[in-house]
Design a protein that fits this description.
heterodimer, A: about 550 residues, alpha+beta, TATA-Binding Protein, six-stranded antiparallel beta sheet, 13 helices, disordered C terminus, B: about 400 residues, mainly alpha, three-stranded antiparallel beta sheet, two-stranded parallel sheet
Chain lengths: ~550, ~400
């Protein structure tokens, strides 16, 4: 495409609205307008210039702010819909039927529809991911489309601008002053004192400050892209571990997801606030709410398997003791182990007596370790008890057999065979909590004596190598928004035209009031023509002349 | 006097100070003939001084309560909402010092007063921290979020001044309808305060047993007359009012009753105010907004978003993620409160892009600022009270 040559002699890229050097309007649109559009300095943007090929069309689609905002709105609405009912991961179900049943039971037809439209797993749906992907694409393309030409034209700007550029600025003034040279000199000095970078060339001043703030939006977009890439990286194996394990008191087990590391649960403690320690301040709250938990703590010891040791061998090296608390995870080698859940008082051992039913005499006792029950218990006096069946989570009889619904000893039941000197062939008995069944009338019975319980800690194991990438993304984003939002790019042009009039114009990318305040201070020092703000019809004109103060 | 009592007295002092300061800002506007005088009005300066005294007393409430409980008072609805009111005043002071515009104070302080009144309707006793909240991040995350949200809220106040000033209240229009809807909503909040306080003073209590959504038996106490009954309720205090209807288990009939009471009382209040004023409430306030410079209000609204957006991002997203990773083992879990923080963030991101590139200034920008405030309040009120999640602390 051909270049556009400006009257000042500068060659501008095709599509330029305002000459990069002198600011003369080049396009018909710019020539006709009263106030020039200063966004991106009237530079040539790819998306506004090339519109024919398919690549141009894709580029233009994603570089459009209208499209960008529409994508933001779509993500926003989808996110909001996802909060109407609980999402999949908060629902106590595992199968599709289970989910459907849950949503239908609680929320009726709307709930069923919510499930069927896939809204119950909104944030993992393919189209939500596509939306986020489109957002990322839009961020990248829209930024490149703008930042490159903006950089070029801010770099090339000349001190003296064409009067047609000056006259089309939002803040503009022209007039005669007593001594032009003196005005310019004083203005230069004052602008420097106001921390402007001032350039001066025969009778023209360009004062500029905080140009770096113009790069803020692009810096924060880079931060967002870093963040989104961090999230994408979690899909790669090794970057991200997320496992959960239940560890009983006294147990020592390999840490799920962290090969080579072994964890021992020494004790789990649940502590509540007591009235004594907190009555003075918290008394009323404890009265009202009942128990309030103070801490969940798992005391653990972390071991590392020796290098080269065979898996399962006992060569463990102690790494450290630690008390895992909520908000205080155990940290090692990039892993974090969190206190997430607990179960109190799971049955550990049960002790029984073998008794003679008629004499109620005990023939001895035995203890069943519920996590590792023995086959035979020898009571030492010629009597033995054989365990024929063990049902840790007994849930009634199914197909003529006792049935256990899980391997967790929530409701243990046993079939014992009692071999005694009187009945060497043995008697069978089915024993469950508060229940004994016998096939025939027995002479002996197993009587429950005692039980020992223990607590279980629910731990979550995480390793997330992407965290630092995410943190970097957040940091860059923050730098970008602060840079772009807490500073303003301001420019003031003052020049003498060919007839000896003085022209003044100013531009800022935001906060025009503050810019006007600066100009007012400048006019107090240097004799400069009065200006107008063409977008503020309510502007108090007398304010510039310094009307008398009206105190009430 | 123990610290907790001192603390609540200080809160009361600041409440009164804000009321008095509002009157002074009103005086500043009434007495000024011109824009210039309005900027430098003595009344405005006195109003600012009283506001600052109120704010310091409010800070006093905050730190004495902190000293009493041993943790930053940001752990439940009362504490959070009070802090929100406090920071709203703080943000106003900051912007008043930059722009010196009394009309902003005349609208910002009443909103802060309504917010503080709303806060005191929640249980105000000092509660010990549950394990998940025991972290230095409680203070860092919540206070940053509160500051961010209150600066953003100032943009809505500036938007409100802009709209009240510029909407033609003599002709029927969509804008007129919606600005009056905003006024009505504010009166509804007062309705909530009035109805809760009345029944509270009467010591009203009605107890019920019911079956919750997990089909387990539960108990509930109403502090307002039960218009609606919980699922399969049975009255334990039969002498009290019998609910009109029984509701399905997913709806909290107690909260719904309270909502309906607020709307009823608020509507009566609104009708009374209309009868007294004989014109829309927005028209009543219009003369007070007339002296504000529209361009200035627009700039304050925009500037508040520019200042508040980074703070909000830092507090409600970045610090939130860091803490969520410490406490819940994941930095993001699509908890409703998290999602609504993201929605707020996306909304203001859209606001900024529309303003920068589409030139949405003036009325459009003012309306967007008001909607942003609605989203923030939705996240504060509805998400805590209606949508259950990890953040439901009240």
């Amino acid at each position: 495409m051909s270049k556009i040559k400006c009257q000042c002699g500068h060659e501008n890229p095709y599509g330029t609205e305002l000459c990069e050097k002198c600011g003369r309007p080049l396009s018909e649109k710019a020539k006709k307008s009263d106030i020039v559009d200063m966004r991106y300095e009237g530079s040539s943007r790819r998306s506004q210039t090339y519109k024919s090929s398919i690549i141009d069309k894709i580029w233009n689609f994603f570089s459009s702010v209208k499209i960008g905002v529409s994508i933001i709105a779509a993500v926003l609405i989808a996110s909001a819909i996802g909060t109407i009912f609980p999402q999949k991961f908060y629902v106590p179900a595992t199968t599709p039927e289970g989910y459907l049943e849950y949503y239908e039971r609680l929320y009726g037809t709307v709930g069923k529809l919510y499930y069927e439209l896939g809204f119950y797993d909104m944030y993992n749906s393919w189209w939500f991911k596509v939306l986020v992907g489109m957002l990322a694409t839009s961020i990248i393309i829209a930024s490149i489309d703008r930042v490159v030409p903006l950089y070029k034209s801010l770099k090339k700007q000349r001190t003296r601008r064409h009067p047609s550029f000056m006259k089309r600025q939002r803040i503009f003034g022209e007039g005669d002053v007593r001594n032009t040279k003196e005005s310019l000199a004083k203005a230069e000095e004052k602008l420097q004192a106001m921390r402007y970078n001032v350039k001066r060339e025969n009778g023209a001043i360009l004062a500029e400050k905080n140009r770096f703030s113009r790069w803020g939006p692009y810096v924060n977009h880079v931060g967002l892209i870093i963040f989104i890439s961090g999230v994408l990286l979690r899909g790669i194996p090794g970057f991200y571990v997320d496992e959960a394990m239940w560890l009983r008191e006294g147990e020592t087990r390999n840490i799920v997801g962290a090969p080579g590391y072994v964890l021992e649960n020494k004790k789990f403690t649940l502590e509540n606030y007591t009235k004594e320690e907190a009555a003075e301040v918290f008394g009323e709250a404890l009265e009202k709410n009942g128990m309030i938990a103070k801490s969940y703590t798992t005391d653990v010891t972390l071991y590392k398997q020796d290098e080269g040791a065979l898996p399962g061998s006992e060569s463990l090296k102690k790494v450290k003791d630690y008390a895992i608390n909520v908000n205080k995870p155990l940290k090692f080698d990039g892993y974090n182990v969190f206190q997430m859940d607990y179960k109190l008082d799971e049955l550990k051992n049960m002790t029984f007596h073998l008794v003679n039913k008629s004499s109620e005499e005990s023939l001895g006792e035995f203890t069943v370790n519920l996590s590792d029950p023995a086959k035979v218990y020898d009571l030492g006096n010629g009597s033995t008890v054989n365990m024929l069946g063990f049902y840790p989570d007994y849930d009634g009889i199914k197909d003529g057999e006792p049935y256990s619904k899980s391997p967790v000893p929530n409701n243990p039941a046993f079939i014992f065979q009692m071999n005694t000197p009187d009945k060497p062939e043995g008697e069978k008995s089915f024993v469950a909590i508060r229940q004994t069944l016998e096939v025939e009338e027995n002479d002996y019975a197993i009587k429950f004596a005692a039980a020992e319980t223990r607590n279980i800690s629910g731990l979550t194991i995480r390793k997330d190598k992407t965290l630092y990438i995410l943190l970097l993304g957040g940091l860059v984003f923050m730098i970008g928004v602060i840079q772009g939002m807490y500073w303003q790019h301001r420019r003031v042009w003052i020049q003498e035209d060919t007839e000896g009039h003085l022209l003044i114009a100013a531009h800022t990318n935001k906060n025009w009031f503050s810019l006007r305040k600066e100009l007012d201070t400048l006019r107090e020092t240097a004799d400069l023509p009065a200006y107008i703000d063409r977008q503020d019809p309510e502007l108090d004109k007398p304010e510039q002349e310094g009307d008398e103060e009206i105190w009430t | 006097m123990d610290l907790v009592t001192i603390s609540s007295n200080l809160l009361f002092v600041s409440f009164v100070a804000y009321l008095v300061a509002t009157l002074f800002f009103g005086g500043a506007i009434k007495k000024s003939k011109s824009e210039k005088a309005y900027h430098n009005s003595k009344w405005g300066t006195i109003g600012l001084v009283i506001t600052i005294i109120g704010f310091l007393s409010h800070l006093g409430y905050f730190f004495t309560r902190w000293a009493a409980s041993g943790h930053a008072p940001l752990s439940n609805m009362f504490e959070f909402t009070t802090a929100f009111g406090m920071m709203l005043v703080g943000a106003f002071i900051m912007l008043y010092i930059i722009y010196r515009t009394p009309s902003l104070g005349l609208f910002a302080l009443p909103v802060a007063i309504i917010i503080i009144s709303y806060a005191t309707m929640f249980p105000t006793e000092v509660t010990p921290l549950i394990p998940a909240l025991q972290s230095k991040w409680l203070f860092i995350h919540v206070i940053t979020t509160v500051i961010g949200e209150s600066i953003l809220a100032i943009s809505a106040i500036a938007g409100l001044v802009f709209l009240v000033k510029n909407i033609d209240m003599t002709k029927k229009s969509k804008s007129r309808f919606w600005i009056e809807a905003v006024m009505y909503t504010l009166v509804l909040v007062l309705g909530f305060v009035v109805s809760s306080t009345t029944f509270n003073v009467m010591n009203y209590e009605a107890e019920f047993t019911y079956i919750d959504k997990d089909e387990a038996p539960a108990e509930i106490t109403y502090h307002i007359p039960p218009l609606f009954g919980m699922n399969e309720y049975e009255a334990m205090t039969p002498e009290k009012m019998t609910p009109w209807v029984e509701l399905p288990p997913i709806i909290n009939a107690q909260k719904l009753s309270s909502l309906v009471w607020s709307i009823a009382v608020g509507s009566v209040l609104y009708v009374l105010l209309r009868l007294i004023a004989r014109k829309p409430l927005a028209a009543v306030f219009q003369p007070l907004a007339k002296k504000a410079n529209s361009q200035l209000m627009d700039e304050i609204g925009y500037r508040a978003v520019l200042i508040g957006f980074p703070v909000f991002t830092l507090g409600a997203l970045i610090f939130a993620m860091i803490w969520a990773h410490e406490a819940w083992s994941r930095f993001w879990g699509w908890d409703p409160k998290e999602v609504w923080a993201l929605i707020t963030w996306l909304f203001y991101a859209a606001f900024l892009h529309l303003r920068l590139s589409k030139g949405w200034e003036g009325k459009k920008s003012a309306w967007l600022a008001v909607i942003g405030f609605v989203i923030i309040m939705f996240n504060l009120i509805a998400v805590n009270l209606i949508i259950a999640g990890l953040h439901s602390y009240a």
